[in-house]
Model the fold of this input.
Amino acid sequence: MKRTPLYEQHLALGAKMLPFAGYEMPIQYAGIREETLAVRRRSGMFDVSHMGEIRVRGKDAGAFLDWILSRPVQGKKTELVSYAILCLEDGGAVDDLLVYRFADADDYLLVVNAANKDKDVAYLRQMLPDWRRRNAGMGGATLIEDESELYGQIALQGPESAHFLAAALREEAFSEDFIASALAMKNYRSLKLERPGKPVPLILSRTGYTGEDGFELYLPEAETEAYWKRLLSLGVTPAGLGARDALRLEAGMPLYGHEMSESMNPLEAGVGFACVFGRDFIAEKTMREGQVKKLIAVVSESKAIPRDGYELLYEGHPVGTVSSGSFSPTLDKGIAFVRVDKDFPDDAETFSMEVHRKEQPFRRIQPPFVKRG
Amino acid sequence: MSELRNDRSYSKTHEWLLVKENYAEIGITDYAQNELGDLVYAEAEPAGSVLETGDLIGSIESVKMAADLYSPVDGEIVEANTAIEDEPELINQSPYEAWIVRIKLTNPEQVNELLSAKEYDEFCRGGGK
Done:
């Protein structure tokens, strides 16, 4: 079982630890409900050091990624962070990820789900020769490296994140100019700082998985604990994977393995915004034409809580299965994403689900379940 | 560490049973409520339900997990605790006061086959499964 650089911190905080993607991870500290509400109202922080970082660089790295990702990444501004799908030829998803760009053209960092990291590295390495064969003369110097062990990562999320980030950076003696640049970042932008003697740059991005304002901090592995302790002493609430899952579902965000997978077309997860068609990439036809389902969002109208795998009923007939179901601490109600047929009527509003052997009412809503702020 | 009470018996599925004058109360242990985390849902089976050992007496849920509760003995439910249905967090706060059901015992000698506080404690330290 692997441990992140923050393992001792979690134990000291009395976290409930459970194995996740081969790591011992904190599921909760004070409680999922308390942590979720702290992120919605103030600021919380997550140890996400278990996530994978895959470096793809060298001549033609961008062209290769353009081919294998759901959207092109070449030629964009360095500060842009792109959410994209790593695609199978048949239109399925190997993973969903964020693409960061370094200053040199053809130097990219893919941040991937912890559980898929080894699979993603193997897939990229397997597909590169394929792509090279189709593009004679290209990709000879493209390198794919697993840099996950070099980075620690903290996600600072909530309406007061900017305040806490600034305070922490100030205490770490960063210049006011740098702090101002960090705070001025818009959504899906990043800032990178190479520092002499450090194995990897410091990367800050205005990204997150909670639906609130927030930042993700990528740190040299050895510095992760110091940043965590600083943020803790400033008053940020530590939050675990339990709260992380409640928050992302409330925010209407998909989770790989639930809303998309190798056998579930990503368009069915509502991530069409991350797909650019009408170009020559690996899944151009198959992904665009392969959508057979769509997601709808339902809220419980009773105390019943929907769970993964439960069947949704419309006028007494089963019409779909819950892909992610949970209790929303913010709404104080059960919420769920349900996969239904692509052509299921948009005006259907009232549903039911069997929960604890009783038929319980559910109402369809337009996601997200909880809006920012 | 989890709290234990010596005045009652325990099951390997983390229920406690407390014999009172003409009924027994059943709830979940401190160890169990701690494992589950903040409870957001609780429901007891209704009065009148006739139970054999292992039959359903209620359901409780935390944000992430749903758990069914089972009777450790044969009996009949005489009262369901409605307070916990409105405030499931009572079970987290006072697991040994927030009973789930009160039952009439069909075979009172079954209580002797349950675990003592000490035996339950050892069971939990050994993994609790």
Observations:
- The CA atoms of residues 41 and 61 of chain B lie 5 Å apart.
- The radius of gyration of chain B is 13 Å.
- Residues 117-125 of chain B form the longest helix (9 residues).
